[in-house]
Structures are given as C-alpha cells and as structure tokens.
C-alpha cells in the first residue's frame, strides 16, 4: 500500500510505506516470475549450445535423445499430480527441449527459430500464469480445498477449511469444526501447533471466532512480519481538526493505519515492560493531540520528571513533574469533573462534542432561561495523562483513579494511565474495569491478561512473544476499532534518531500554537479552588523542575531558574515533614509522656527500636481504621527511646520500602498487606 506524503514547513518529508513498496510489489509478482525465468534460461541455453556444437551431427543426435528422455522423465514424475498438470508439464518440456536442440544445431537466429522462441515462449509462460490464477480462484471458492493433512497433524481431524483467500502475505480461511466434538476453544489451544506446522511465529496465527457459533470462525495467517522496519512519524493526520477525529499513531501489519478514536475509547490503559516502546506510543499520541483545535492536555510524570516529554512541555497546559504536583493534579481532575458536567448540562449537552468547544451561539445550547443564545465561551476536551503511574498509585493508593474513571465519561475528560504492569497490587480492579480501552506493548509472561480481554488473547494476541525485543509493537483494544483488529499486531510510529524528535516536537509546538485551545474558565476555576497555587503556579513549578533536572546542585546562571529550583527543593523537603511537625525543633527531644506500658530498663538499640516501632504500627493500624499517623506514636516515644522526628523518618522509610502507603493526608499512612501479614 502506498501513501501520499506531504511536505510540511519545518518537518522533513517522509513516507509511511514508500520503503516497503518494492517488497510489496515483489510479493505480488513473485509467483508469476518462474515461467518467464525458465523461458529466458531456455534462450540462453540454445545460444550457448550453438557456440559449442553448431553443425555437429553427433551433438544433434545427443540433444534429440536427451529431449526425449527429459520429456519422458517429466511425464513419469507427474504420475501423482493431476492429469492436466502432468500433460501441461510434458508439453512444456518437450517444446523447450526441441527448440534448444534446433537452436544448438542451426543457431538461435536462423529460420523461424526466433519467432518460435518469442511466440512459443510467451504462450507457454502465460499458460502457467493463467493456471496459477485459476488455481488460486478455485482454492478461494472451493469448500473442499482445505489442507486436511495440516488439521490432522495438529489434532483437529475432520475440521473443514473453506473459502480460502490468498493475498500478498496473508491467507484467510473459514473453518468449521466437527459438531459435538470440538469447539472454538480447542482451536485456540491448537494455535501454537498450527504455527509450528507452518513454521511461522505464533503471532502470525490469528483466530477470529464467529460470535453466533461455538465451532465456526476464521483463521488468518500472516507469514512475514511486515513491521520489522519502523515507520517514521509522517506528520499530523488531521491538523487543525477536532479531537473527535481519531488519532493516527502507527500501522497494522497489513499497512492499514493504526488509529485511536479517543472519544470512543474514553479512558486508556497503556501497559508494557521497560524498553517495549510505551514512550514512543505516548509521543505519537501527544504529537497528534497538539495539532488539534479543541483539546487541552494535563500530564503528570513524577517518576522521571518529564524527561521524555521536555520538548513538548510548552504545548501542555499543566505538566506536573513531581509527586506533590501530581497528587494535586489528581485532586484537580476530581474537582473539575462536576464543574464541567454542570456546564455541559446547563448548555444542553448530554456528553461532550466538538460544538461544546466553540462559542455558544446556538439557542439549542444556551444556558439562558429565555431561550436566546448565551454566547458563553466554549469548553475544550481535557486529557489527563498519568505517566509511570505506579509511583503515584503507591503514594496515593491503588484506587485513586477509580472515581475519576467512573465519573469523567460525560464530562469531556479522558484519563490515560501508563504503567509497566497493571496488576491488582498496583491498580484496583474497579479502576481497571473503568478503563475500557487498552494499548498493550511487549510484556512478560501472563501480564497481558491485566490489559487485554480474554477473547483477544484467545484470538491470538501474544505481546509476551515480543517482550522488549520489538520496540513499538502493540495491540490496541478500543470501542469503534474493528474487533478483528484487536488481536492484530501493529507498530507505533518512530520519532526518529536523536535530534529528529526534537525537530518534530518544535515543529508541532510552534506551527500549531495558534490552533490549540486554551483552558476554559470553568475548568480553571474548579482546579484553582481545589489545589490553589499548585494550579495557578503550575508553569513556574514545571519550569523549576526543568531547572532541577538540568542540574541538581549547580546554578544555571539564570536567577529565575536558580530561584525556582531552590524553591522547588525546599518544597520537596517540606513535603516530607508532617504538618504538625512544621514548628518542631528536631534537635530537641520531646518531653516524656506518661504511659501505662512497662518501659525497658535500658534504651533499645537502633535495630530493636525499629522492630518495636513496626510492631506498634501494625498494632495501631490493626485496631483502628487501617491507618496510622506519626502523632499516634506519641505515647510510646519513651518506650522507643527516640524522639518524634526519628519516628517520622522511620515511617517515611517504611513507606519508601513499600511497607506503608502514604495517604492524601500528610503524616498518615495506610497499612499494606505485607506488613499486616507480618
């Protein structure tokens, strides 16, 4: 498949499939080349034989006998083939050998030999081409064309394959299992054996079950991986259009566009192991989003401080690049949902649509009671992206996104949660159920079951076969994406070598600066009310994180950046101090507290004190609501032989080790199952 390319200002001209056109053309013509190649070899053989044996009667006798013997051998060898094919082969060999003998004795250019060669050779070659076309057509329409030996070999005897359709690098066949003996599940279990029998990768076999039958469906075989060569991002798919238009992010293995219909997908889980290409997929999505006219992006990346997204930060309305800012973004998203829903309701929208992003001049979408157009400013779509969300989930709890995912459907808000492994220990079952779309890159073992539905895995989806060896390979499951494509491998676009991505990002950020929407007053007001300066100073905080990532200890020379970096460092330290400890002098021990607990005669060693603290934490959380605060340990400080600041540090250590989980309230931790079991 060949795609048109465009030359965009500042962006290098690239093509999606120009690099594979030659391979595709060769696959199409290759089956028809052999007869013509044989005709060419015959001409060369006649000319070469003439140079050796021109005018030699003995050579003529030998060549004649050889022609007869070769024709007879061909006839004998074709005894197990069809009669027509046997006769066709013998006639072809007889004609070719007779011409070669005559050319050797008389010369290939003497008498009628040149005309016989050109006309006879072309006719014979075309006859074999026609035979191949007819054979393919018969295989496509014949109900008895199945390779029964293959089905018997893999333990599926009496399975009928029919309506076989052969395309370049793709074979499709309908199957019908014997009634009462086998089911679609049995065929799915035999997929690996079918791949072995055909000597192709397991990902090359896809099984599409008929939803109306337990024993019928289709088998799709794609023997050659056409995704090995990455495709460079070809530029915007729908520049200046609404986010309602799907986002093009890659290609399927048959050359079709890989598109994500965001408004149908609503919320997306992006999962894949380190090195599998999640970042490339994220960049593809963001590059597309930043060329649309009615969408605003909030991005949280506390794990890597936005390391992979630096060139795109200017196009984002909010980039939360540390844990406090990311937690504030979660709270802000929770707060803006009811505000946005109320605005849509008041303007007569049951759900967000492109018209909601424009000025409201339609009386049908007016918030006025007199029925006249209200003229209110529109409200852009909001995408909240949480990159490497596992860290945030550990800090805030595995159900932090549940409410957002369940309530944001009608508010014009999409949630993207990106993580390496969406297991039940990291992402709650309720949250996972509320993320209807998934992009699953390479994973380990059975981890694909955390992202892909069971029916997609049964159909042949196997991201564990890639791991991190096929960067960018992905399965996309979403509403408004053909179900037959859910188990079809695809590959996201490549943003190019070092330096190329920066050029692409700069092009998108600058070229579409006047196209992108600004955040509406309704969303901004709700976010400011919920998180205050975390929102109003969001750009300064992001700038401070950029400065901090540039140099953690050395000044940049820019007073603004250096000041922001110092402020960010101070805020990060302050975030680790409990609210009730803000005025505490950590160099002074607290006064002893009266307690009924028997105190040890001597001060516990550091190891003994840590063990005692862990027992106390488990006890307090076990008899309470499942949480424990630093202040709860006040009555036991003397028994521990330590002050309050030591307790606060030890509980922070236990949280960093995953034994306690911080909550939204400073200084309060939630007991995790590991410590509870201990």
From TrEMBL:
Keywords: ATP-binding, Membrane, Nucleotide-binding, Plasmid, Transmembrane, Transmembrane helix. ATP binds at residues 272-279. Residues 255-450 form the FtsK domain. The chain crosses the membrane at residues 58-78, 90-110. InterPro entries: FtsK/SpoIIIE/SftA (IPR050206), FtsK_dom (IPR002543), P-loop_NTPase (IPR027417). GO terms for molecular function: ATP binding; DNA binding. Gene3D superfamilies: P-loop containing nucleotide triphosphate hydrolases. The keyword NAD does not apply. This is TraB. The lineage of its organism: Bacteria, Bacillati, Actinomycetota, Actinomycetes, Kitasatosporales.
């Amino acid at each position: 498949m060949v795609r048109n390319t465009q030359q965009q200002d500042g962006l290098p001209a690239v093509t999606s499939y120009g690099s594979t056109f030659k391979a595709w053309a060769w696959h199409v013509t290759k089956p028809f080349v052999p007869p013509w190649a044989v005709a060419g070899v015959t001409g060369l053989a006649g000319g070469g034989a003439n140079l050796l044996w021109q005018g030699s009667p003995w050579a003529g006798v030998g060549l004649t006998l050889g022609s007869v013997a070769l024709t007879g051998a061909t006839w004998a060898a074709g005894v197990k083939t069809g009669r027509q094919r046997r006769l066709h082969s013998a006639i072809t060999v007889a004609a070719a050998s007779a011409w070669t003998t005559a050319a050797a004795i008389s010369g290939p250019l003497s008498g009628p030999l040149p005309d016989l060669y050109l006309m006879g050779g072309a006719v014979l070659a075309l006859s074999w081409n026609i035979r191949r076309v007819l054979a393919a057509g018969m295989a496509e329409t014949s109900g008895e064309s199945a390779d029964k030996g293959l089905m018997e070999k893999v333990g599926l005897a009496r399975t009928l394959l029919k309506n076989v359709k052969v395309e370049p690098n793709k074979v499709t066949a309908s199957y019908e299992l014997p009634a009462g003996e086998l089911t679609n599940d049995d065929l799915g279990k035999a997929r690996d054996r079918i791949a072995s029998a055909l000597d192709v990768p397991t990902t090359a076999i896809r099984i599409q079950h008929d939803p109306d039958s337990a024993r019928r469906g289709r088998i799709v075989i794609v023997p050659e991986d056409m995704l090995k060569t990455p495709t460079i991002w070809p530029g915007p798919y729908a520049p200046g259009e609404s986010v309602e238009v799907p986002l093009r992010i890659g290609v399927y293995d048959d050359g079709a566009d890989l598109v994500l219909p965001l408004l149908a997908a609503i919320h997306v889980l992006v999962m894949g192991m380190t090195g599998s290409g999640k970042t490339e997929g994220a960049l593809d999505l963001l590059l597309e989003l930043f060329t649309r006219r009615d969408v605003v992006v909030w991005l949280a990346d506390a794990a890597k401080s936005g390391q992979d997204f630096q060139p795109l930060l200017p196009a984002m309305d909010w980039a939360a690049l540390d844990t406090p800012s990311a937690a504030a973004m979660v709270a802000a998203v929770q707060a803006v949902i009811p505000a946005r829903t109320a605005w849509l309701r008041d303007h007569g929208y049951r759900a967000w649509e492109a018209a909601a992003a424009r000025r409201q001049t339609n009386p049908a979408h007016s918030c006025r009671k007199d029925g006249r157009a209200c003229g209110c400013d529109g409200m852009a779509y909001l995408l909240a992206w949480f990159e490497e969300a596992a860290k945030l989930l550990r800090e805030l709890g595995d159900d932090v996104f549940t409410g957002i995912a369940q309530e944001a459907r009608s508010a014009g808000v999409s949630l993207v949660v990106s993580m390496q492994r969406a297991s039940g220990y990291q992402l709650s079952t309720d949250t996972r159920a509320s993320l209807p779309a998934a992009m699953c890159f390479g994973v380990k073992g059975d981890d694909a079951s955390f992202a892909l539905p069971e029916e997609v895995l049964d159909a042949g989806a196997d991201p564990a076969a890639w791991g991190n060896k096929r960067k960018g390979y992905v399965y996309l499951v979403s509403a408004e994406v053909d179900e037959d494509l859910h188990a079809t491998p695809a590959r996201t676009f490549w943003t190019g070598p070092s330096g190329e991505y920066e050029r692409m990002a700069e092009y998108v950020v600058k070229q579409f600066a006047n196209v992108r929407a600004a955040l509406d007053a309704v969303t901004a007001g709700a976010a400011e009310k919920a998180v205050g300066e975390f929102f109003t100073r969001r750009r300064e905080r992001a700038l401070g994180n950029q400065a901090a990532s540039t140099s953690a200890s050395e000044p940049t020379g820019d007073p603004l950046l250096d000041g922001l970096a110092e402020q960010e460092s101070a805020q990060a330290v302050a975030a680790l101090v409990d609210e009730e400890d803000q005025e505490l002098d950590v160099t002074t021990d607290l006064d002893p507290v009266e307690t009924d607990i028997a105190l040890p005669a001597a001060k516990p060693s550091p190891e003994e004190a840590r063990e005692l603290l862990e027992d106390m934490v488990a006890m307090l959380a076990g008899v309470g609501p499942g949480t424990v605060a630093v202040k709860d340990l006040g009555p036991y400080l003397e028994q521990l032989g330590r002050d309050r600041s030591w307790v606060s540090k030890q509980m922070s250590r236990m949280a960093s080790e995953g034994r306690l989980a911080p909550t939204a309230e400073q200084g309060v931790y939630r007991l995790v199952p590991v410590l509870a079991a201990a």
